[in-house]
Amino acid sequence: MMRLRQLCRDFQVGDQVVHALDHVDLEIRSGEYISVMGASGSGKSTLLNILGLLDRATSGTYTLNGADVSTLDDNALAEQRQENIGFIFQSFHLIPRLTAVENVELPMLLSGTPVAVRRERAQEVLEAVGLGARFDHRPDQLSGGERQRVAIGRAIVMKPSLLLADEPTGNLDSRSSTEVVEIIEQLNDDGISLMVVTHDPDLGERARRHLFMRDGKIISDDGDAA
Amino acid sequence: MLLRDVFRFTGRSVLAHRMRSILTSLGIGIGVAAVVLLTSIGEGINRYIVEQFTQFGTNTIAVQPGKANTLGISAGVFNSVRPLSLQDAEALLRAPYVLHSVPAVSGSASVEARGRERNVNVFSVGPEFDQAFRFRVSRGTFLPHDDLERPRAVVVLGSTVYEELYGNENPLNDRVRIGGERYRVIGVMESKGDMLGIDLDDTVYIPAASGLTMFDREGLHEIDILYDDGANVNEVIAGIERILVARHGGEDFTIISQQQMLDVLGSIINVLTIGVGALGGISLLVGGVGIFTIMTIAVRERTGEIGLLRAVGAERSRILQLFLGEAVLLACLGGLGGLCAGVGIIAIVNITIPAMPASIAIEYVGLALGIAVLIGLVAGVLPARRAAAMEPLEALRTE
To answer: Which position has the higher pLDDT, B269 or A28?
Structure first.
């Protein structure tokens, strides 16, 4: 359902061109659980950002659910992100003045969903991530693990097909990490495609398919059927 | 995004920093309050002046000797011109639409009666003065229609003069001395109050010819004309002009209609009102700078939030709308607050100091609010555009 063909992403650093992604070919099928590992600067975050439509390729094509999204304009990309992609960030990125349930509602708020519908859906999602009793808490009243669970709720509230997690446990203690990982793996079991970018070998190991990157290239991929 | 949610989201952002938002709005609020107050005082003065001048009726025309191109040249400064005579005043009764023609000379003199003496204004006028200017006699009669050149020596007392000299006694037919001459009292006027601070009742009225002698003048200060309500003022002026030019052999007089006078005064006061309003506008401008500053800070502080909103589906235009909305909301809050403060202060002033003329100028109030919103928009545009221009990825990386 997702396919990258000869995809390059170049950055201009001073008068030098850095190939963050260097002719990458990748195919992701529905429901896969993929980890991306590699040293800093190997291009794994860039790969995630390209897949999440937060960044554009310099060359090559990206096909999402059968449609070429490499040439979409800014507004169309925003719409694609809203409908198809869920993001989980290392630093949660919750809006501090909004309550847990309002943070979860945010994508539906932006898509124009009526308040009654989105409130019900947001509560349902919060219960799914184990925060049923904490609807009205603001982020500063929640622990790190709880915050990340709110962020997961926000990522899945629009029922996206792909969940992208960039070091999802990077700011968490080991117990919270385990909880968070269990929740996103449960979501994957329910059918959502999951890609986790991490430095943590233990977390990376848990995926069913493992990508290793170096210098903008995928040097190892144990699940590439294509 | 539903419009309701846009309002709620921006409202939450403003509420999140309560003190900061209040202080920012205060700048606009003070500006709006200043505009409301200053223009209200201007409007109050305008109404006060119009009221003062129209208490004698609006369909009056003054003819003064000498040709002046602008208003404000005092009567009789041109000695080379032919003076306005009592006969001129009488002749003007024949002009079309003219109802009353009142010759007038004024000055001041001392009045003695019953061993008391008082310095008063002396209005030496024609017998139709009371009808022309809506003055009423409370006792006796006003000046009679006498021989133009040699009227009887009679006087009508203003109510203040009467009270000061006679208390409550009957003054009719009593003899008084005015400027050394003897006059017989034939009437007392009703109180007329004051005009622009001058007590109109501290006055005695004597025949015009007597005044010319008393003040040793060749001609009148002024001839006051009352014309028919239904007449066109320009036609009336043309008729007066024709008669006087024929009598004088040239245009050596000035005709000022009450309407012209009010128009000129009105336009002067309007310019002043706009001027003070603009002074208040400067504080609005300062308030706008405050909003610009706070929005610039807000955009920087909330860069991560902007990135997140973009990641979960907000278009650039949405970010622009949200931040612009916030700036306008701050301006509106300030504007409404300032409006309430301004109107409140005026209400208090009207109750506590009734003499102070203050009247809310609704068009300036509307203008001030409109400008407040506009300032919010202008102040918000740059920060909001900066927010909208951010690349989502860059914004997310900023902590």
So the answer is: A28
Give the residue from chain B lying closest to A111, CA to CA: B1
Domain segments of chain B as ranges: 3-52+264-398, 101-225
**DSSP character for A50?**
H
Q: Any idea what the Cα angle at residue B301 is, between residues B296 and B307, rounded to 5°?
A: 105
- Yes or no, beta carbons of A93 and B307 under 8 Å apart: yes
**pLDDT at residue B311 in the model:** 94
**Does B21 touch chain A if contact means CB atoms closer than 8 Å?**
no
Whole-angstrom distance, CA of residue B379 vs CA of residue B383 = 8
Backbone φ, ψ for residue B74 (5° rounding): -75, 155
**Are A55 and A218 spatial neighbours (Cβ–Cβ below 8 Å)?**
no
Q: CB count, 10 Å around CB of A90? A: 17
Q: How far apart are CA B84 and CA B63, in angstroms?
A: 9
Q: Which residues of B fall within a CB distance of 8 Å from A78? A: 310, 313-315
Q: How far is B20 from chain A, CA to nearest CA, in Å?
A: 15
- Looking at residue A143, its amino acid is S
Nearest to B393 among A49, A109, A114 (CB): A49
- CB-CB contact of B185 with B174 (8 Å): yes
Per-residue confidence band for B70, with pLDDT thresholds at 50, 70 and 90: low
Alpha-carbon distances, residue B286 vs B35, B281, B290, B291, B322 (angstroms) = 13, 9, 6, 9, 23
| Pairs of residues, one from chain A and one from chain B, whose beta carbons lie less than 8 Å apart | 68
Q: Which residue has the higher pLDDT, B40 or A94?
A: A94
**Domains plus CATH for chain A?**
2-93+160-221 (3.40.50.300)
Question: pLDDT tens, B123-135?
Answer: 999 999 988 888 8
Name the average pLDDT for chain B.
88
Record: contact B312-A107, CB cut-off 8 A: yes
Q: Please write the tens of the pLDDT for every residue from B149-198.
A: 899 999 999 999 999 999 888 999 999 999 889 999 999 999 988 776 77
Chain B partners within 8 Å of A167 (Cβ): none
Which of B312, B315, B316, B317 to mutate to test binding with chain A, by most A CBs within 10 Å of its CB?
B312
Q: What is the CA radius of gyration of chain A?
A: 17
Tell me if chain A has a CB within 8 Å of the CB of B18: no
From residue B3, alpha-carbon distances to A110, A113, A114, B8, B179 in Å are: 10, 11, 11, 9, 81
